[in-house]
Amino acid sequence: xxxxxxxxxxxxxxxxxxxxxxxxxxxxxxxxxxxATKSSPETSDATSAPPPPPAASDVSSTTPADDDxxxxxxxxSSCPNPGPLEAATWDVRRLVTLDTYDxxxxxxxxxxxxxxxxxxxxxxxxxxxxxxxxxxxxxxxQMNDEEGFMMARVDPERGTVDGRVHKALLGGLAMGKVQVxxxxxxxxxxxxxxxxxxxxxxxxxxxxxxMGGGNVVGCNYFQAITPxxxxxxxxxxxxxxxxxxxxxxxxxxxxxVNDTGSSDGDSADAAAAAPGAEPPSYLAATYNAGQGMLSLxxxxxxxxxxxxxxxxxxxxxxxxxxQVTVGAEFNLTRxxxxxxxxxxxxxxxxxxxxxxxxxGSPALNFAAELDHGKSLMRFGYGLNIGS
Length: 387
Fold this sequence. Notes:
Blueprint: H1 3-6, H2 33-38, H3 41-48, H4 56-62, H5 68-75, H6 90-96, E1 103-113, E2 116-124, E3 135-145, E4 148-155, E5 160-169, E6 174-183, E7 190-198, E8 202-211, E9 214-224, E10 229-238, E11 243-253, E12 256-257, E13 263-264, H7 265-273, E14 282-288, E15 293-303, E16 307-315, E17 322-331, E18 335-342, E19 346-354, E20 363-371, E21 376-385
Parallel strand pairs: 1-21
Antiparallel strand pairs: 1-2, 2-3, 3-4, 4-5, 5-6, 6-7, 7-8, 8-9, 9-10, 10-11, 11-14, 12-13, 14-15, 15-16, 16-17, 17-18, 18-19, 19-20, 20-21
């Protein structure tokens, strides 16, 4: 039914025309629609356009000349600290000179406090002790804090006492070390004091003490030349026999090789500079001038943190006598396997297995050595209890 035809003077809201739609908000972020309708297209385009970038003169004027962050970034060198000279080839030496033994070895550790611990060491049924002894016992104490540690070991049967003290000096800029070895006979007593210092790209060490009935004076220096190359040397004078010993070392870090076979130089530099990171693959050469021996050490990280391969070559350039040793390390979830083979046919292996997943769980060790040239065979196992 058409209502307006019956009641021509009656109108409803539904019969009136629809109101116009509200205006759109302005592109420039205006406050009201009325202001947007009054503004011209030129004004809207100008308001919505982004501001121009600042000029170079404005940037230089806003940056302070004495910016501390800029100074710190400019003072940082791209060459990392190479570490101590004596640790330059430690990764290779620990895999080519395994700690093999025979008999039974048991170490029981007890943490008496967060800073103090004691260790009881037993070695039974062995043929490696002097004077035909088949057993030994050692008592070790160690105390650690934020600035260093102190350690002492007593062997009642041999009548020896070994002590070591490390202490940070000058707010951590240097490290002082004292090593003492004393015995009931007194013939092999030793006292040695050392001072380690270093900066962003170098480390140095000086030592002085008494060894073998004479004074000992020595020093070494290790400098990073490039992010991958480090060179250094060491000299020592032994007063007991009047010998002057010197050696020179060069170490080169190889760039990391990714899955595609290409080298990644940035990753290698970052890994070398990162503290606590696993050392990448490297080649180190050491020449001992006193003995006329050249040592080449190579490490290859096949799988970082899992599989590592090492090789060591010691030769005399004069007599052409040489000795080669190859070693490997395999790290699994709760076990570790180390083995090495040298040029004489001697094979050494050490297997360590954790008996639990918690911190301080007991560990079971198996050691074996086969020397085919000397017809020598050694087998032993050990147990580590405690943290």
